[in-house]
Amino acid sequence: MDDNLETLLAALRDHGCAVVERGGRAMAQCPAHADRTPSLAIRYDEDEGKILMHDFAGCDNAQILESLGLGWEVMFGESSPVRNPEPKFKPTYGHNNGFGMTLGEAIEKGLV
After folding, report:
1. Is the domain of 95 the same as that of 57?
2. Which of 3, 49, 63, 92 is the most buried (most CB within 10 A)?
3. Are residues 58 and 11 part of one domain?
């Protein structure tokens, strides 16, 4: 088991959340809302080297980590989630909008 996963599960238990572990996965009560039955699914993805967490009641990971006083480094092993700074594609529209630019250019300039 990953050290960060152990840290997360220990923080959940310290917070008073019930945690049930089965075969490298865990279900826990979510610390971000009043949870009677475990709604938080947690597992460590060895291929990606990160923790995957999903609350079936709808709380997002930022809310959950904040409730536990933990940062993103627990999930990703660094100070913030990995984000792709550039979009994978840029919208390209060939139609001129009447102002001397395409719709895609207007979107990029924040005019639309």
Report:
1. no
2. 63
3. yes
Q: Strands 50-55 and 19-22: what pairing?
A: unpaired
Please check whether residues 68 and 89 belong to one and the same domain: no
- What pLDDT band is residue 80 in, cutting at 50, 70 and 90? very low
State whether 62 and 12 are in the same domain. Answer: yes
Q: What total number of domains does the chain contain?
A: 2
Residue 103 to residue 95: CA distance in whole angstroms: 7
Radius of gyration of the chain (CA): 20
Non-local (6+) Cβ contacts of 9 within 8 A are 19, 21, 26, 28, 42
If one counts every other C-beta atom within 10 angstroms of the C-beta of residue 66, the result is 13
Same structural domain, 14 and 66: yes
Instruction: Indicate the pLDDT class of residue 41, thresholds 50, 70 and 90.
Output: very high
Tell me: do 66 and 16 sit in the same domain: yes
* Confidence at residue 67, expressed as pLDDT on a 0 to 100 scale: 94
Handedness of CA 66, 68, 69, 74 (dihedral sign): negative
